[in-house]
Every structure is written in structure tokens, then in C-alpha cells.
Amino acid sequence: MKSLSVIALALLIALGLGLVGNLAVADDKETQKGEGQEIVLDVYGVECAGCARALTAALEEGGVEKASRLAPGRDKTAPVRVEAQLAEDADLSKAATAVNDARTPHRAKAPPALALVLFTDAGEESTKKLAESLKDVKGVDAKKSKADARKGEIRLILTGDDEITIVQIVEALDQGGIEARTSKKAAKKQA
Question: Which of 119, 107, 124, 128 is nearest to 55 (CA)?
Fold first, then answer.
């Protein structure tokens, strides 16, 4: 009788391990599929704690995940930099529309807006091509977007008018001779 109980217990453990293993694999696939990449956003219109709450909710509504704390800065006219996660192929217009339409307490004084920040090693000459590179990219305000070669940053103002992804923006910049990435650190080149 004791040996039958041990066999039954061993069988249940083996089955349990098999089920757990299958669940772990499925869970891992879901995590990989749903994981976003680290991105940097500049959020305009953060005048007070009420504005910060409304804009944080707007980012979440727009599909931005794991956004860092949004709080008003000392310079009320400057954007607040946020680190977050977003899938590479996610539509940025959803987040831009949600932020642009956010009902903040100081909306009339400081209208909300959203910018995607990309990083580049391009020099001054290349960054001068920014507006030309973006002129046909719907969903990005090419005239208001700016590049700072000294900081190695490109700030792309998102309009929310048309669907646009990070991949589409990076490809447009690349075609215009500006190599851009979502990470501040350049990717290591394969030897």
C-alpha cells in the first residue's frame, strides 16, 4: 500500500511539473510578445500636480506602459522627461491624441503635447536635415521637431493625427541620412 501511495505521489508530481513547465513557457511567450522597448518621451503642459495626474492617465490610456513619475518641474514651460515602455510597432498617435486631448487644469496656459525623444550620433550637418527627412511623415510635426547635435537628441513632436510607429520614424530619418535609436547608448557593432 505504501509503495502504491509513493508511485501515485510521484506520478502527480511529474504531471504537476509538466503542467507548470507548459504554463511557464506560455507565460514567457506572452511576456515576450507583450513587452515593449524602453523609450523616452517629453510631455508638455505639466504645470501642477493636477496636470501631472491628468497627463499620467492620458499616457496610460494611450498605451504607454511603465511610465516613470510625471511631476511638474521648476521650469513650467519645459517638457517633463518620462521613461516608459512601448512596443516598437505600437501606434504612437494613440498616446499623442490622449495627451493632446487631456483635460488639464492649466490647459489654456500650457497646452499638453507629446514628443518622442530619439538619440543620434549625427553631427550638426546631419541634424540640419531633420525637417526635410520628416516632411512626408504623417503623425509628426516636422516644423516643430528639433535636433540637438550637442546633446545627441532628436525631439519629435507627435500630432496624433495619423498612425505612426517608432519603426516608421526611424526609417524616415535613416533615409534622410540621420541614424537614430531609442536608446541613449549606441548599439555595439557586430565584428
Answer: 107
